[in-house]
Amino acid sequence: MISRTLSTVAGVVFLGVCGVVSAEPVEAVLDNGMKIVVQRDERAPVAVSQLWYRVGSVDEVNGRTGLSHLLEHMMFKGTPTVPAGEFSRLIAQAGGKDNAFTSRDYTVYFQQLAADKLPLALKLEADRMHNLSFKDSDFTSELQVVKEERRMRTDDQPAGIMAETLFANAFVANPVRYPVIGWMDDLDHMKPDDLRQWYHHWYGPNNATLVVVGDVDPQAVIAEARRQFGPLKPVALPERRPQIEPEQKGERRVSVKAVSPLPSLTLAWQVPRLEKVDAQRPYALYMLSAILDGQAASRLPRRLVREQRVATEVSADYDMLGRGGALFSLSGVPAQGKALAQLEQALRQEMAHIARDGVSERELERVRLQLQAGRIYEKDSMFAQAMRIGNLESIGFSWRDDATIDANIAKVSAEQVRQAARSLVDDHLTVVTLLPQQGDKPRMPAMPQGDQTHVR
């Protein structure tokens, strides 16, 4: 028996049918350029609303880093009709929760609440898209919060220092080299008007995508979004000029010292991101990363940790989706009594084995099944569904490309994986080593540099 719920809020009808997920999203584009994508998921009477602004640290320039992240903080400082703190109070009063995060590619504001309360979230987001206001004193206090956030998550964390050092040295021109939270010196010299200008430059309906997933009627959501966001005027977006990274023509090495109980190592190669859905190399690199790491049976943990015992931790990483430069990286912590040079040699040997001998069809099929299972489990989460849609829409793809991307990953051959491994040459390599120093323990775990979540 399928249960149905019917609610009317602000003149909008939201119909929920528990137990059903619609075949595909429904989209609309408002006259002001704002895009709305709604995925109906009727398994629970709740909804996730995510407002994606296509602006992040890759849109910043040297001397003005950290603007996107700090503006995310300031967006909670209120409007003339919704004072500071009132946004979150109203969402909580309605039984929901809200937050935001900034990455290199975008800034996202989200709410999770009962489906019939969705109009409240849309009304509040439309208000602060156009009417944000903050005092200079609010800026000064929040800037101190962000500086402390940087100290705790980067300056006092070995992993944060390593990540920041890696991107700053692996790239010389592409803005992916800038930390999302910004360089401390840039934060020291930031002014309130810097944030106000950034807001007026980038925060407009024509630079935003609203993604809603939940127990809602898509047409009702689109109608409500049109009512709330439709009257807002588009903004004149700054010109985005390509900042193409010059070809790297030699291996780069850098060592950093930080308070840490153990040394660590990262090898990272400059590689392409996925720019067209029919590209081949990014898919092969993605599959190579999954073969090396991701499960206990993957090559790196199996061979380097359990068999050779040269490492206590190992990982491989490659994100093919984004607007900036990309790296394919191998990282690890040497086992007790093992030197960083031994770990580096072991990592290189594993890559050389694949480049020479390739991978078996059995191993490839196992990884395909693991990736397919992960994508299926992802659909159990409304938030994850919205993230996938918003991510694709914000980096230049469409949610319609999702199935094609998955299909292309599944079609990667063993020979393509071997060629991907062969393409990782030393001339495009950056090696970063962490040399541990004695001192006080770090204060809290580091957050990945590509995703700075607002903490309140």
TrEMBL record:
Residues 436-456 are annotated as: Disordered. GO terms for biological process: proteolysis. Residues 191-371 form the Peptidase M16 C-terminal domain. Keywords: Hydrolase, Metal-binding, Metalloprotease, Protease, Zinc. Residues 36-181 form the Peptidase M16 N-terminal domain. It comes from the Bacteria. Gene3D superfamilies: Metalloenzyme, LuxS/M16 peptidase-like. Its cofactor is Zn(2+). Signal peptide: none annotated. The keyword Zinc applies. GO terms for molecular function: metal ion binding; metalloendopeptidase activity. InterPro entries: Metalloenz_LuxS/M16 (IPR011249), Pept_M16_N (IPR011765), Pept_M16_Zn_BS (IPR001431), Peptidase_M16 (IPR050626), Peptidase_M16_C (IPR007863). Belongs to the peptidase M16 family. This is Zinc protease. It comes from Pseudogulbenkiania subflava DSM 22618.
